[in-house]
Design a protein that fits this description.
With about 190 residues, this protein is an all-alpha fold. The chain has eight helices and no strands.
Length: about 190
C-alpha cells in the first residue's frame, strides 16, 4: 500500500468548511483560537501538559471533520471548537478515571460512585467555565476577585478604582447571571 502525501489527501473540502483543510487557514485558526482552547481545557484538567495534549487532539479532530462545519448554518467556529474541546476533555477525564489507581485499599472497599467523581467534577468545572464566559468582563473581574479570592468589596473597589457600591452591584449581577445560566443548564439536563 502506498501512502499519498497529506496535502494531496486534504487538498480541500467540498463546499463551505472551517478552513482547516488549507495550510494558511489551519495556521490562522490555530493562532487565533489555541490560547482560548488551552485555557478552557486547563480549567478542567488542571495541568498545562494535559491541556496542550487535549488541544492538539481538538485540532486533529477539527481538521479531520473540517468539511462538516458549515459557517452559514450552525454555530460560530469558536463554538464548534469549544464543543470539540468539551468532548476531548471528557474523554481524557474518563480515561484517567478508568486507569487503575495505585493505592493500598482493598478493591472491594471502593464504591462505584467514586469512579464517577472525576467525571462529575470535570463536567461541573466545565459548566462553571461556560457560565463565567457568559457574563460581562466587568462582572467577571469583580466576581473572581470578591468571591473566589475572598476579598472585601472595599479592597476590590480600591484596586479597580471604582466606588464600593459599583463593586457590590457588579458582584450581585454577576452572581445572578451565573445562577440563571446554571438554572438553564439544569433544565436542559
Amino acid at each position: 500500500m502506498t501512502h499519498r502525501p497529506l496535502r494531496q489527501v486534504r487538498s480541500g473540502c467540498p463546499g463551505p468548511c472551517a478552513g482547516l483543510c488549507r495550510p494558511d487557514g489551519f495556521a490562522a485558526v490555530h493562532r487565533e483560537y489555541r490560547p482560548r482552547l488551552v485555557a478552557r481545557a486547563r480549567a478542567v484538567l488542571g495541568d498545562p501538559e494535559s491541556a496542550e495534549d487535549a488541544v492538539q487532539e481538538v485540532f486533529l479532530r477539527a481538521w479531520s471533520a473540517c468539511g462538516s462545519f458549515d459557517p452559514d448554518a450552525g454555530p460560530t467556529l469558536l463554538a464548534w471548537l469549544a464543543t470539540i474541546t468539551r468532548n476531548v476533555v471528557v474523554d481524557l477525564v474518563r480515561a484517567r478515571s478508568a486507569r487503575p489507581q495505585l493505592s493500598r485499599t482493598d478493591p472491594e472497599d471502593t464504591d462505584s460512585t467514586a469512579a464517577d467523581a472525576p467525571i462529575d467534577a470535570a463536567l461541573q468545572r466545565m459548566l462553571l467555565v461556560d457560565a463565567l464566559a457568559g457574563i460581562s468582563d466587568e462582572h467577571r473581574v469583580v466576581l473572581l476577585r470578591t468571591v473566589l479570592r475572598d476579598r472585601s468589596y472595599r479592597d476590590v473597589a480600591a484596586e479597580l478604582q471604582l466606588p464600593v457600591g459599583t463593586v457590590r452591584s457588579r458582584a450581585f449581577y454577576a452572581l445572578r447571571g451565573l445562577r440563571r445560566y446554571l438554572d438553564r443548564a439544569d433544565l436542559a439536563a
